[in-house]
Amino acid sequence: MERKEKLNRIFLILLSLFVVMLGYGILLPTLPYYTERLAIKGNLDTDLINFHIGLLTSIYPFFQLLFVVVWGKLSDKYGRKPIIICGLIGFVIMQLLTGLATSLTMLYVARIFGGIFTSAVIPVSNAYLSDITSEKRRTKIMAWSGVAISSGVIFGPAIGSFLSQTDIHIKYTIGLLHLDRFSVPFLFASLLGLIVLFVVTKWLKNTARVPKFTTQKVSLRFTFTKYFIVLLLLSFVIQFAVTLFETVFSIYGKDELAFNSNQIGIGFMLCGAIMAVLQPVFATYGEKVLSTKKQIALGLFISGLSLIVFPFLNNEFMVYGLIIVFATGVAMVTPNLLSAVSLLSKNNTGRNISIQSSTNSIGQILGPILGTWMLAGSFYYPFIIAGMVVLFAIGLVYYLNQQSRGMNGALLVGQQKKSNDGP
Predict the structure, then answer these.
(1) Labelling 21: which of 118, 223, 268, 365 has CA 20 to 30 A away?
(2) 3-class SS at 282?
């Protein structure tokens, strides 16, 4: 494959990742206010608003969890492109349904639909990137995948908070659908998704299909090694912490710090910006200073400690500063974990990344639910407990290092035996 063609493919995949995460980011600062408006309109108990915010956040990754491995297997069978296209179509429909919702029920339907179809985009896109890059450059390209994802979280909250507070006085109802100023950011996301869908359909080349017998031969042997299980546990912990923080921060900022949606959006923008800038930096230059596992351990320490400190701050600028510290820690962890999973198996990359994505989804399900549940006790509980979980996970990195040494030792013994046996 020529360098120019490879770069074009990488750009289209990163564009797909960006637009999907942009839609995710648009909802972050507006969800508490949007949910509150629909709950009051539907004469629902206002004491349950935080519960609905947590459930609406969790139901999206729950359906991603149910369908992500299915999409991964289909992508191995039919190629990555048609699955990515299906995901983008679902994304466009989800944004339309979200923007035009007139009740919490419709919002739940939109989130469920989006969870089913957008689970086809992120893991399959990462598998596509893995297919067209060498093992040597895998960590770097996965970091750029992280940049695309983080960039969506940078611009999404800014777009969502700005467009939802515009002076556009639109109010129009068509049956069950309702158009007003809260609809504008989601209609913008659906239009952008439609453009990206057209571009990807026209110009992205499909990847080669993985032969069926190859997938069956390798799957069980590589997928559930102890090394892989530890990687999945670490992926779960970091995603649990990140989504708990995202959900609780939006409520904490609204109710405790008296932030408006713009201030909450700035917090999410800072988080996404730091991750977008630092992930490729750590992936490219990090190993010159620290090994991959030491980067993961240090990242867990930084992010865990910052979560514990977070509820003790109430100054706006100190809150933003701690968000930057937290995002720095996460940026050290995520690309290294994704790269490690992608290197496990050459023939089952799509499925392995999908399994990791399923594990991430479990963290994304439990984070918002447990976070909003703990909020009933105190604003301190979700941040401190999540921080402690992240710090305890550092012990898994030590175990990961032991497993890695064992795998390398076994490989070396096998090579020596093969050499002694002769041709």
Answers:
(1) 223
(2) helix
* Spatial contact of 225 and 353, defined as CB atoms under 8 Å apart: no
Give the Cα-Cα-Cα angle 262, 265, 266 (nearest 5 degrees): 90
Q: If 0-12 CB within 10 Å is exposed, 13-18 middle and 19+ buried, where does residue 120 land? A: buried
Separation between Cα atoms, residue 180 and residue 182, nearest integer Å: 5
Domains and CATH numbers, the chain: 3-202+221-421 (1.20.1250.20)
pLDDT at 217: 43
Verdict on whether the full-model pTM lies above 0.90:
no
Dihedral angle computed from the Cα positions of residues 272, 278, 284 and 289, in that order, rounded to the nearest 10 degrees: -150
In 10 A of CB 409, how many CB atoms? 10
Taking residue 125's Cβ as centre, other Cβ atoms within 10 Å add up to 27
Residue 187 half-sphere exposure, CB side, CA atoms within 13 Å? 13
Q: What is the pLDDT of residues 115-134, one digit of tens each?
A: 999 888 988 998 898 888 87
Rounded Cα distance between 90 and 190, Å, is 10
- Give the Cα separation of 35 and 244 in Å (integer): 18
The share of the chain scoring above pLDDT 90, in percent, equals 29
**Rg (Cα) of the chain, in Å, rounded?**
22
Please state, in angstroms and rounded to a whole number, the distance separating the CA atoms of residues 235 and 363: 8
DSSP 302-318: HHHHHHHHGGG---HHH
